[in-house]
């Protein structure tokens, strides 16, 4: 039946772009938005949300197109939608372009600075998928592209940049880079055999995981700076950072060079809890 095929297609696209992982940077964007000036008007909030969702969705879809050949070669990713033939590269590429056009339109609706900076964010989203072919810093490029969410949300409200937005973006960058290193550890052997660059591939699993932990230490430091620089933020914000730190400790205790079976839980599930914890305590600290 037509409606069944349509539902399956929507499900395939949702899986393709990992829509369930939207929460990762959304929490940073919401907290940045609230710190910038409280809850905005409904139309401003709507366009911030549209810009965030379309940018993230388009970037993930494009990543799947660019990495289709690599995904097909890797046993871990060979079951993804494009390698399986459930979706073809051309339709996913068109879908990605449509998402990016929507992102640019949303940026235009927010303010001139958002629209002016949007192409920079778009460039980072496009270039990220290629960086793993020539640099182990691909994790940081991913983090910087994700940091467009909180920085963009701040600019959408204020029309200006600030140190609070900078440290929020830096925290988002370090956090994403850290858990992406953990996630990439499971492809260590494949990456070495196929010339894919990553921090674990370059520095080895042990030092790669150490670097990941350092990124997460930096995340907490940057978020502390956000708290100190923000006016009127309640102490509950810093209590929330204690819980975030505990989740980081749990995350890094779950993986080691000789035990990578919990990589997905450590890199995704635990960090979804990090995001929700930061969102909950951040919102409470602002509205208290």
**Number of H- or I-type helical stretches:** 15
CATH secondary-structure class: Mainly Alpha
Using the alpha-carbon principal axes, give the shape: globular
**How large, in whole angstroms, is the Cα Rg?**
19 Å
Order of helices and strands: HHHHHHHHHHHHHHH
The number of domains: 1
Helix content estimate? over 70%
Mean of all residue-level pLDDT scores: 91
Extract low-pLDDT stretches: none
Beta strand %: under 5%
- The rounded distance between the terminal residues' Cα atoms is 52 Å
How many extended strands? 0
Going by CATH, the homologous superfamily would be: UbiA prenyltransferase
Global structural class: mainly alpha
CATH architectural category:
Orthogonal Bundle
* CATH fold type: Tetracycline Repressor, domain 2
Report the sheet with the most strands, covering strand number, pairing sense and barrel closure: none
